[in-house]
Amino acid sequence: MQVFTTKAAVRDSVRDWRAAGQSVALVPTMGYLHRGHMALVERAKAQADRVVTSIFVNPLQFGPGEDLATYPRDADRDLAMLRDAGVDGVFLPSVEEVYPPGAQTIVETTDLARMLIGKLRPGHFRGVTTVVTKLFNIVQPDVAVFGEKDYQQLCIIRQMVRDLDMPLRIEGVPTVREADGLALSSRNVRLTPEDRAAAVILSQSLFAAEEMAKTGITASRLRAWVAANIQANPRADLQSADIRDAATLASISGPLQRPAVILLAVRFGKVLLIDQRVVTP
Ligand SMILES: Nc1ncnc2c1ncn2[C@@H]1O[C@H](COP(=O)(O)OP(=O)(O)OP(=O)(O)O)[C@@H](O)[C@H]1O
Ligand SMILES: CC(C)(CO)[C@@H](O)C(=O)[O-]
Ligand code: BAL
């Protein structure tokens, strides 16, 4: 496995692979890897001859007062996991390598980036789409793999690729969960034991809502039930609970007619957890 710290180094290797007729998949991450990330790597391996994983905690997607400084990091452990998984290259750049002084250009989807998590974290998705565009341009993959856990992020990236005619395919991978249902997330390690136990309320609410969706309940009632179920837990500080069209993220309120996605953002102490579930009528 090669570890690249510069854009030039990753480009050189990708050029050699391409010259040998090989296809390339990219798995962008912020590191502190877990089984969810490894599911993305497995999907990438099934989609291309070569797999590059990037590890970069992107300052541009963190707002003032967010957890950039305390975001969990362990590059050695990450590299060992990626080597064991048979990844070909890891792009592990410094902030200066990605953002040389004087950069001015941003990439932004308009409507999709302002709703939901975009309201809770203003500017967050502009940081994501800007860095993801840069990663796509640096690595030039045939396919890039993202998790459905960050559902809005996945929708925004698909929209960006369509809107800007980016020449690659986007693959989404279902959320990998702990045995009790909690979605794996790098931030889970920052939960206190009490909050870790309480955090199961997200997936429990989503799984219950999935069953309720089959009974003809309206979208507004389902949203209200999920919100109330989470608010009944004294440790959970509900930030948002929404039900949207699964394909477009448009608001819905009446009887469910198409697949819908329930999107949750809940704070436990200082830790913001998100989760989602697509439900079908
Ligand atoms: N439990 C999971 N199952 C599948 N994919 C996941 C899971 N968790 C994260 N991913 C995906 O991994 C990629 C990198 O995400 P990231 O490095 O931010 O990890 P994370 O665990 O979501 O961290 P955090 O939510 O704490 O920022 C994203 O495409 C994300 O959707
Ligand atoms: C896609 C991403 C790697 C961009 O920094 C990040 O938002 C993430 O880890 O989901
Ligand atoms: N997985 C999304 C990255 C972030 O929370 O900033």
From TrEMBL:
Residues bound to (R)-pantoate: 61, 153
InterPro entries recorded: Cyt_trans-like (IPR004821), Pantoate_ligase (IPR003721), Pantoate_ligase_C (IPR042176), Rossmann-like_a/b/a_fold (IPR014729)
E.C. no: 6.3.2.1
Any single GO BP term: pantothenate biosynthetic process
Location of the active site: 37
GO cellular component, one term: cytosol
Binding site for beta-alanine: 61
Reactions performed catalytically: (R)-pantoate + beta-alanine + ATP = (R)-pantothenate + AMP + diphosphate + H(+)
Pathway connected to this protein: Cofactor biosynthesis; (R)-pantothenate biosynthesis; (R)-pantothenate from (R)-pantoate and beta-alanine: step 1/1
Major localisation: cytoplasm
Function text: Catalyzes the condensation of pantoate with beta-alanine in an ATP-dependent reaction via a pantoyl-adenylate intermediate.
Additional facts recorded: The reaction proceeds by a bi uni uni bi ping pong mechanism.
Family affiliation: Belongs to the pantothenate synthetase family.
Name used for this protein in its record: Pantothenate synthetase
Native source organism of the sequence: Pararhodobacter aggregans
